[in-house]
């Protein structure tokens, strides 16, 4: 009976696939290319099939390699997380919670939720990831997150996940309060929207053809970048009323009333559909739901 592949070999295999070549993987991991070749050969002998096709342009997965990669990706992430968690509990008593959020829940609700959560779990290390809904759901499925909070567009399927409705937010158009709302036609305005807001993207697609056919639209990776463009360069932003109400003393924004604009979005708390969910995850969800 063949022995199981080493975890280190599986993670190296994943890095090779991610980097696309032995050369790039060698530089990233500081492991010689002959060693990487030997590891792949041992894996292929263990599996009994070729996993990678190599060429001058790099490596690509074979059909068997692609199936193998999909199976081990989640498994290795889960195993690595379990090892880190047990080590932390043994050495320091720490526990870990990994939370993914899109921009609006992160800015509006996370600070208060963390404050309350830390009072109950002072030795828990919380990692927060900001991403768009598609990225958060993918990370959740891949066991890189314990829960996610985001809106859901039509293209996202969560049939294998548990979703709980969290909050409904109202979106409006805002611009710096020192600008005249009617001084500049919509067609000439510059628009900005965080890439993490699926709802905002859908709204922009609907609004721009009606109100700003020739407007310039910029996407940002964070709320901070959005705020900088609005504050410093006069961009018009699609934001939730909740964010503006909470931070308007720093933002100094004013709403632009537009009859054609009526946008609201439901945000959801999402977790993996597992028999048991860690207590700290459930407690964090309860705190969020109470916000």
Automatic annotation (TrEMBL):
CDD domains, alphabetized: PBP2_LTTR_substrate (cd05466)
Domain HTH lysR-type: from-to ranges: 5-62
Keywords: DNA-binding, Transcription, Transcription regulation
PROSITE patterns for the chain: HTH_LYSR
Any Pfam family the entry gives: LysR_substrate
Homology family: Belongs to the LysR transcriptional regulatory family.
Name of the protein in question: LysR family transcriptional regulator
């Amino acid at each position: 009976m063949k022995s199981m592949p080493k975890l280190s070999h599986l993670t190296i295999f994943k890095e090779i696939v991610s980097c696309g070549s032995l050369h790039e993987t060698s530089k990233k991991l500081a492991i010689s290319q002959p060693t990487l070749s030997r590891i792949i050969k041992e894996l292929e002998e263990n599996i009994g099939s070729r996993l990678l096709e190599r060429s001058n342009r790099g490596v690509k997965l074979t059909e068997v390699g692609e199936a193998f990669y999909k199976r081990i990706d989640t498994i290795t992430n889960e195993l690595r997380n379990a090892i880190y968690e047990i080590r932390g509990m043994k050495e320091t008593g720490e526990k870990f919670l990994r939370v993914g959020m899109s921009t609006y829940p992160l800015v509006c609700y996370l600070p208060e939720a963390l404050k309350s959560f830390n009072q109950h779990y002072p030795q828990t290390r919380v990692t927060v990831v900001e991403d768009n809904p598609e990225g958060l759901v993918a990370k959740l499925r891949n066991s890189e997150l314990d829960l996610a909070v985001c809106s859901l567009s039509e293209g996202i399927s969560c049939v294998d996940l548990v979703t709980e409705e969290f909050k409904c937010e109202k979106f409006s158009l805002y611009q710096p309060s020192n600008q005249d709302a009617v001084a500049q036609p919509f067609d000439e305005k510059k628009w900005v929207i965080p890439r993490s807001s699926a709802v905002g993207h859908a709204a922009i697609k609907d609004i721009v053809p009606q109100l700003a056919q020739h407007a310039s639209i910029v996407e940002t990776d964070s709320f901070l970048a959005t705020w900088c463009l609005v504050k410093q360069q006069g961009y018009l932003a699609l934001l939730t009323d909740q964010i503006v109400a909470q931070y308007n003393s720093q933002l100094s924004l004013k709403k632009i009333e537009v009859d054609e604009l009526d946008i609201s979005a439901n945000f959801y708390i999402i977790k993996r559909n597992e028999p048991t969910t860690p207590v700290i995850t459930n407690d964090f969800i309860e705190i969020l739901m109470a916000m």
